[in-house]
Amino acid sequence: YTFLSKRAYDLTGYESSDLLGRRRPDLVREGNSGSDVTGHMSDLIARRPFHGFEYWSETPGGRRCFAISGKPLFDRKGAFMGYRGAGRDVTDQAQIAQKLEQATLEAEAANRAKSEFLSTMSHELRTPLNAVIGFSEVIGEQMFGPTGSPKYVEYANDIQASGRHLLDMINDILDISRIESGHLDLADEPV
Fold this sequence. Notes:
- By secondary structure, the protein is an alpha+beta fold.
- It has helices spanning 8-12, 16-19, 24-27, 37-45, 91-140, 150-181, and strands at 50-59, 62-74, 80-89.
- The chain has a three-stranded antiparallel beta sheet, sandwiched between helices.
- Helix 5 (91-140) runs antiparallel to helix 6 (150-181).
- The longest helix is centred in the middle third of the chain and has 50 residues, at 91-140.
């Protein structure tokens, strides 16, 4: 791979004369590619054209990302001579893509943490809430005898109604957590 552009220094920080005859692997650190390295190497070995291969390179001007394309050149006898191609600096776009990917991963992690928190808290709230509802039902129905005042029965019924309302809200939150985690089984029914 040979750089012949007059703008080579502007792109890479190397003088064109420093790049003549050098191959890209001499200038690129392994594992820094933004593209499919295996597929690209297969193309090179098979002498196929390639387009838009991205890789990161440590240049005298700093770490840069390049997108390159190449077409194989053969002599009149069909012998492979090398590639003729072009490259462009896509560092800004690559950095934006990396930041976007990182932000997406962080947002997904935050969403998972939120779902786990909601699920855990919902389960923790349901247990005592079921006791509140159950005991208010016992008092409201006066299962162990009269309460002594009709107001106590009224209050117990209010506690029970409020508890059931809160339990319905907690169940909705659990359903949302199940939906987000992909663990909600749907049952189709006519409505």
